[in-house]
Structure formats: C-alpha cells, structure tokens
C-alpha cells in the first residue's frame, strides 16, 4: 500500500502546464537554476557505532495499519510503533487507541540510539523536530531509506526540557506521510524543570491537534488537487491524539497540557469557551521565564505550547471547552475563493472538552518563576547590521524561499553559515518579486535589511503577473521552521494596511520563549536571533505548511 502523491519532477509538472509556462516566463533565472539542480543522492543507511554507548535504545517501526477512528469501518493509516531495547521503562508511552506514535520521554544528557525500520512501500526518513543533533542525525531527506532498510540514529540529548516532534521528512512526500499518521511527540526533561514539581503523571496530558477528511467508508481523503496544495490541505474533522470528539476527565485541580499543532496546514486560535485566560508556561523550546496569560494563543503547524490548565473551584459535572475562535488574514485573497473545506480556517469550532468528574481540595500552585533563559543580545550576533534574509514568495505552483525552490546542492552564499556563530535573521514576504536567487550575493551592497545582494526588487512579478500585485493576492501566513537549535524572536512588524485581519491574531503570539517555528503573517517581518553551534552540515529551513514544503518552500543552510 503506497500513499505517495505521485510527485514526479516539479520541473516536469510545471513545464507541461500552461500555468507552469506562465510561472517560468515571469521568473527569469528560475528555469536555468532548476536545469542545474542535482538530484538527491542515495546515501548508505547509517549503522550503529560500536563505540557509542547508549543510555536509551529504541527500535522505531514505520508500518501500515488500520485503526478505528470513527464509528464503522477502521481507517487505513501509516503508523509509528516502537520497542524499548534499553533505558527507563517510562521512555515509551502508547496513546490508547491512537494511530500516533508513542510518546518518547528523554532526559537531557542521555545518549540515545534509535533503529528506524522502514516497513512502508515507499522511502521515508524521520526528523527530530526541535532537537539539536548532528546534521547526519537530523532526518535530512539525504538520508531517506528505502522499504526494508534500517537507519540508525545516535545522538546525545542536548536540549533543555521541552516538547519536540518526530515525523517523516522525505523530499516531496512529507505531507502525505504525516497526514496518513506518521507523527509522534518527544518530551525532554531536565533538572531545572524537575525542581518546579509541575503536574505530572495523570496530570500531564499531551494534546496533539490535527484535522482530517474522511470518505463514506471512513478512509482518509488527501489533496484532491492543486487548489488543496496552494493553500494547504484542510480537513473537516478535528482529531486530538488521533481520536474524534476528544474529551478528558479531570479533577478540580491544576493540569499541564502539552499542546502540539500536528496538522499539515491548519492554524488554530486556541481559547477557553468561558473566556478564562489561557495560561502558557512554555513554547517550542521549553519553559518560559515566567507564565504568560493570553485571551487566546495562535498555534500554527509545528508549534507547541505548554498550558497550565487550572480546574480548581469548578464543580463536579461542569466542563470547559477549548475552542478555535474566529480570525482572518492568514489565507490569500485568491486562496479564500479556492478554500473549500466545510470547516473553514478562521471559523469557530471546538477542539476538545475537559469534564470535571471529581472534586479535590489539593492542587499545586503556579510558580511565579519557571526558568532562566540566557538571551542573546544583538551585539552577540556576527551580523548585527546585515540580517540573513529568509524571503517568502508565492505564485501559481511556485512556493519559494530566497527566490528559489528546494534542490539538493543549491546553497546560495547567503545560506552559508560559519559554525559556532550567532546570527541575526529576518523573515519577510517578498510580495512576488522573488526571482533574485540567481543573483544572490552576500548582502554587502545594502538594500532591504541585508538583502541587497538578492535582487529582491518590486516589478519582478511572481508568475509574470505584474509586480507585487499577484504576490499580494497570493500572500498567506507561513509557519517557518528552522532545523537545529531554537531561536529567540527579536521583533515583529507589519506594513500598515497590508493585512486587515492582523488585529484578529496579534494578541495570540508569545515572543518571550525559545522557538523553532514562527508564524509569519502576510505583510509581516519577523527578526530572530539563532545560534548555529556544535555541528557542521546541512540544516533545513522550510514552511511547516507541509503542502508548501513539498511544493519546494524549503532550503538548506550549510553550516561550515
């Protein structure tokens, strides 16, 4: 059984369509750049190093399965399963009745060996989203393994406490493999977190939110055509931990909810239905320094939040519903017409229900201080006056970063990073002018925040549609994920008048923690400081709208 989406060469697809020819006509240099792109080489699967002494050893299997999700027929899925060979017994926790992979719990400082077995009918590789590991262990598409092969990962857990993700990362097939079930969560613990005595055991609950579309036989429907890929694919059923109509039974006390947006494209605006503030104690890269309360929290694909949910004082039999509230401004003007889901993005719908089933008197108190983060200053960066650009541009069948689609061995000068440096970076929308990849330089000749050498000039016109106009019509929100170490957000700014929906989301961003994925709204510019320490090699950055990633909105940083 294969779920591959028949993603034959993007160049063939574009060149054989009238829209593709139009896109090529409007992007001078892109066709010639694609002519010179090298195919992804096939690497020999990594084997176990006899000198590496693991504290934890796991066999991780990718396989096909059938799982009851809705009433009636079971649903065919792809699934991670695991077997613990060595390590603490709490390392693996199955999610009952779920197609999601087991929860993997690790400790900072542990040495980990994972044997990935490909039991699928197509190639795959697993990425440890959020973990700081060597390039060879990161799950780059270079290391994709064929059916029947085994890939061995070996790394030390260098991360502070936090929630990470494991999911496939094969080139042009990430979205379809994730959508059909291949995903799981990793919880890292450390001494700083342990000292807080936060809710644990039955009082710490993973909440993995995904949207899916089913046919009349309860089988998954995915990507019915190009319109589903341009805006991202949206289902009409919300699943939590792989289950429909999810509910948790709680006591009248504090809980810790580890929330992950595991959707391929859907963005959520999370809020409690009775107006209770959402108390956030952590984000992608672990605990905040102090708790933050928000009326709602925006959560894009790949992002995580750590929520302190206190049900103290609530009566037995009462309930609290986590909803996604109305918002706008994340889909392009053209995309709003293309978006046909019966559960529209930005509409109001429930996510899960918490039901108070037991009244108790004891509850832990929310700590006023959570952790200490060693913040970088602008003066710590190697380039305080020349941010490394990450420019986003969209067009018909073209999703680009820094003016180019993904290709192996296509690193531009601006994408080469000296190892053991701290870099200032700027993520922004190029508004359809992004054909400058072929002239990429090092940003030495000024221009917009260090992108002067990139040829980012208005009038280039994505798809030849007349300057920035088409780019603005196509502009949409993109969750940008950078592999490797987490980064800190320095600033967010938005051009006045470029996004009339921004006011509906702006209070939902949390900027005081460490991140590896950041939602960049249309017209928005986000500056970050990111370390590139310890490891040389290729580390990807891409849109975590997985349909966009598979369409080419992905690049490599070469850390040298």
Task: Please name the CATH architecture of the largest domain.
Answer: Sandwich
Q: How many helical stretches?
A: 9
Number of domains: 3
Radius of gyration: 22 Å
Q: State the major sheet.
A: 7 strands, mixed
Short description:
The protein has 9 helices and 32 strands. By secondary structure, the protein is mainly β. The two termini are 40 Å apart.
Key attributes of the depicted protein:
560 residues, mainly beta, Immunoglobulin-like, 6-stranded mixed sheet, 32 strands, disordered N terminus
Structural features, described:
The chain contains nine helices and 32 strands. It folds into three domains: 14-36 and 375-559, Sandwich (Immunoglobulin-like), CATH 2.60.40.420; 56-194, Cupredoxins -  blue copper proteins (Immunoglobulin-like); 201-358, Cupredoxins -  blue copper proteins (Immunoglobulin-like, Sandwich). The protein has 560 residues and is mainly beta. The radius of gyration is 22 Å and the shape is globular. The strands form six sheets. The protein has a seven-stranded mixed beta sheet with strand order 12-11-10-14-19-16-17, with no helix packed on it. Strands 23-22-25-30-27-28 form a six-stranded mixed beta sheet. Strands 3-4-9-8-6 form a five-stranded mixed beta sheet. It starts with 9 loop residues before the first helix and ends with a strand.
